[in-house]
């Protein structure tokens, strides 16, 4: 029986900013239904790679395919409408808006009501649609255990809760593939454990494929199905977590034991 086609594939992706090489000939694929992590030292090209997948950057060379479709030249909004959601390393919430409204923003592209139906809102069309969207948002709020802050301005929340709200907004897109950029960054141990549990549940219970950048090796080892390692914009290893972290090339990259050579400039993100 033929192996199922990957949900995401990057083929020979290179990315340059002027004379700076952020990525060089990177190829990998993500299988449907897995948690796939990208790791590497600072400046390795991790965020640049995710930005190429999300549409924030367009590769200088190579292409990106989602469910077999070439999406290399599509913008972020179009990719979101196809089923790709993402969070950011630096929070991108609307601080003055409530948690509920921030999550509703994530569903904006799913709204089908046109101008005429909007004018006739109270006659049932748009009103019914909004109620359906709110029901789904409330389900996400319950799932991520943020009911107690649903009406609070997002900017007033502790950092760990704001990260959870951003995850909720990405989930609200109804993605089949969700891109998580440093979901554990800045969290204490308890917050990391909660976030890891939510990610696993999104994968196992909600059927979302996860592409994650993460520095916490404990989390990577615990929840990832496969791992890819980048170093100076190049892929140096890929496989199951235990195999990858035992690779001597990976250990040298993380421990700084590589031979002295002229290295490319740091990643531009």
Automatic annotation (TrEMBL):
Alphabetical keyword list: ATP-binding, Nucleotide-binding, Transport
Sequence ranges assigned to domain ABC transporter in this UniProt record: 8-257
Chain segments annotated as transmembrane: none
A single GO molecular function term of this UniProt record: ATP hydrolysis activity
Alphabetized Pfam families for the sequence: ABC_tran (PF00005), BCA_ABC_TP_C (PF12399)
Entry annotated with the keyword Thylakoid: no
Cellular component terms (Gene Ontology): plasma membrane
Keyword match Acetylation: no
Name this protein carries in UniProt: ABC transporter ATP-binding protein
């Amino acid at each position: 029986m033929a192996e199922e086609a990957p949900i995401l594939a990057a083929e020979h992706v290179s990315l340059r900013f002027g004379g700076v090489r952020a990525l060089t000939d990177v190829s990998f694929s993500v299988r449907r239904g897995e948690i796939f992590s990208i790791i590497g030292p600072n400046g390795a090209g991790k965020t640049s790679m995710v930005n190429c997948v999300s549409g924030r950057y367009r590769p200088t060379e190579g292409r990106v395919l989602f469910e077999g479709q070439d999406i290399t030249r599509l913008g972020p909004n179009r990719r979101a409408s196809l089923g790709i959601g993402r969070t950011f390393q630096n929070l991108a919430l609307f601080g003055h808006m409530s948690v509920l409204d921030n999550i509703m923003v994530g569903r904006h592209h799913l709204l089908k009501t046109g101008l005429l139906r909007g004018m006739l809102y109270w006659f049932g069309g748009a009103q019914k649609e909004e109620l359906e969207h709110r029901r789904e948002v409330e389900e996400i709020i319950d799932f991520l255990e943020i009911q107690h802050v649903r009406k609070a301005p997002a900017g007033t929340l502790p950092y760990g809760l704001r990260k959870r709200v951003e995850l909720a907004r990405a989930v609200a897109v109804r993605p089949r593939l969700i891109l998580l950029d440093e979901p554990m960054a800045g969290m204490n141990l308890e917050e990391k454990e909660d976030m890891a549990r939510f990610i696993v549940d999104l994968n196992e219970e909600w059927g979302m494929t996860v592409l994650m950048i993460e520095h916490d090796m404990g989390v990577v080892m615990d929840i990832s199905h496969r791992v890819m390692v980048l170093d100076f914009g190049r892929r140096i290893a890929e496989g199951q977590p235990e195999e990858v972290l035992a690779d001597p090339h990976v250990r040298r990259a993380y421990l700084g034991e590589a031979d002295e050579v002229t290295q490319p400039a740091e990643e531009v993100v």
